[in-house]
Structures are given as structure tokens and as C-alpha cells.
Amino acid sequence: EADGTGHAPTTTTLNIDHTVLRFNGSSQYLEFGSDVASLFNGSDYTVGIAYRTRRTNTEFLFSCSDGSTTDDFWIYKSSSAVDEVRSRHRKTSVTSGPWSAPGAYGGYGAAIVGYEDAGKTIRNRVNGTESTLTHTQGLAGLDRGAIGCLLNASPSLYGQVDIAEVCIFPRKLTSDEMAQLQEYFDARYDVWRKIEELPNLVAAWDPRRGITTGTGVSDWDDVVNSYTISQATGSKQPTQTLVSSAVSGCPALSFASASSQ
Q: How many other C-beta atoms are found inside a 10 Å radius of the C-beta of residue 103?
């Protein structure tokens, strides 16, 4: 918390027994010290973030800048109920993505971005989908960095996000290395993926996926064999709650005791 004026995030423990940093989306962020931020100034580096977003706004996970609004680079979730994560370099107006991120809103997601200055290339891996970009200009001069906001002349566009882990490497990881980091994040934080991998599992219903809506949820497909639970009567359909206070901010289906079934 660079300026000491109350911008620090809080900690909270999720129902999966992981403690995360929770950013409120209006004022909270953390800025890297100069020893780490110097890596962003025309050097090779990789940033890996395990995260969860908690609303449908544009949510900033990571940014680095030149201290003005001239040049910056950021990783963010786009403003959509659809789970999309992108990275963008302002000076060259290059945007990568969107990548489908099933766990990015209301559940776990992972973003890994590596930059190589010599070739002006950025390799992105978000929730298992990988792409590579080449910029016409490098990222030299970007000597400030933060999580939880867009940081340029001053912080803005705060993210309402939970950050579980941040990893930084002093070079652009290879594709295989990024896959290894993705596997590491998945093993620690993607509890739904673990459920799907259980042996002899017949069906599992994930409140983030397989939802068809009518008045409420009309059909709910399981993630193993696509078995479907249905309710054709709109007045009896439960609602999908992507951020439920009843289950530590995780997604859920909400049933009204008088009607839903």
C-alpha cells in the first residue's frame, strides 16, 4: 500500500479453506516496490495470477505503467456477464483475447502473461487457452506495477476481485512452463476441476456451468455426462446467484422455499 491512505485490501477465507486478498472494487490496490517494478521496464518477465472476480464490471487484475497515461499494459476481465479475460498494451493499441474463462466470474480463474523484450512478444495463457502477440513497440519505461487496479498517473478502474496468489518470473516462460504453472494453480484452487476428475463419478452439477435460463434456471446440465435437471414451469425455477453471500461469495442456485424445485 504505497501511500498509506487506506487503500489496502482485506483478507478473507473462502469456503475452500484458502485465504485470499479481497479488493473492494472502489479504492483498494497494492503497488509493487521498485525492486520488483524494475522488471517491467523493458526486461523479460512473466506474471501469473490465481484470482476470482465478483461482479460483471471491467475488473483489473494487474497493470504496469510509465507513471503517466502515455503507456501501460494490463490484464483484466472485460465488462460482461460472459467470462472473458484480456490483456492490452495502450501504446500499440494491441488487445489479446478474449479467452473463455469458465471460473473467472464467481469462481476460480488463472491468468499467465509473459513478455520478451527482444522480440516484442507477449505469450498469454488464461485458463488453459494460449496465444502469442507481437508488438511494434516494447514495454520499456514501464517502471510501476500494481494488482487490483489500473495504475498510470494515479490508480483507477479498481477490480472487485479476490487474489489468491501472484507469481513473477524474471523471463518469459516457455509454453510448457506456463502449462506447468497452470497445473499448479488448478491443483490448488480449482475445486470444481478436482470434482470432475474423481474416479467413477456419474454426475456433478456446477452452478457456474450448464445453465439454461427461462424465468429462472430451466435446465441444469452436469459437467461429467451432460445429464440434465429441468423445470419447465417458470414460477418454480430457481435462480442462479453467481456471488452468493450464503456460501462465502461463491456461485450457487437459490431456491425459494415456497415455489422452486
A: 24
